[in-house]
Specification:
Nucleotidyltransferase, domain 5; five-stranded mixed beta sheet; two-stranded parallel sheet; 6 helices; about 35% helix; ATPase_NBD; hydrolase; Gcp-like_dom; peptidase activity
């Protein structure tokens, strides 16, 4: 599949000088797959790796869709009634993102909203609908601003230029929690209380 993507783009894999990947947070299987692929390719090509936060990629994707954005609350559904979230602000001089609130995992009703105008980016707006109604500084919601390849490539290039790289063996997924699903007993108990 990697070769097909490069062929479609009329690029040669051996021309790569670095590889960027969405390091997380996100689904365990997706993160492990992305990490394994990038480690294998980077090892074979002897190139450095640039891990990119998936939440930062959501912020970058939102900015690509609206160049006026400077403050983004990136939120991804973490399942199990929880969300991954972080808050970013764009430095207008350097055009680099600054982390205002680092990556956090909380219940979907426990997010701290910015106290200045912001855009919500990511796939969790529906989970937050009740809280968003009480977020006075919410300017817009961009549910299509997801950690796609274009955003990861843009951020990866910036990080590469800043020397923020790791070796293939040091490329690791960012896991925020260890538990990935409710047990049968937990699901039954939740259903009984619903």
């Amino acid at each position: 599949m990697v070769q097909e993507v490069f062929a479609e783009a009329k690029l040669n894999l051996s021309a790569c000088t670095a590889l960027a990947f969405g390091a997380g947070p996100g689904s365990f299987t997706g993160l492990r797959t992305a990490t394994g692929v990038v480690q294998g390719l980077a090892f074979a090509l002897q190139v450095p790796v640039v891990p990119v936060s998936t939440l930062l990629a959501c912020a970058q994707a939102a900015r690509a869709r609206d160049a006026a954005l400077t403050r983004v609350l990136a939120v991804l559904d973490a399942r199990m009634h929880e969300v991954y979230w972080a808050q970013f602000e764009l430095d207008l001089e350097t055009h680099n993102w600054r982390t205002v609130q680092p990556v956090t995992l909380t219940a979907s009703d426990a997010i701290n909203f910015p106290d200045a105008p912001f855009t919500l980016a990511g796939n969790a707006a529906e989970l937050l609908s009740a809280q968003l109604a009480r977020a006075p500084h919410l300017v817009s919601i961009d549910s299509l601003a997801l950690p796609h390849a274009a955003a990861i490539a843009t951020l990866g290039l910036s990080a590469l230029r800043a020397g923020q790289v790791v070796s293939a063996e040091d490329a690791m997924p960012v896991y925020i929690r260890n538990k990935v699903a409710f047990t049968t007993a937990e699901r039954l108990a939740r259903a009984a209380h619903a």
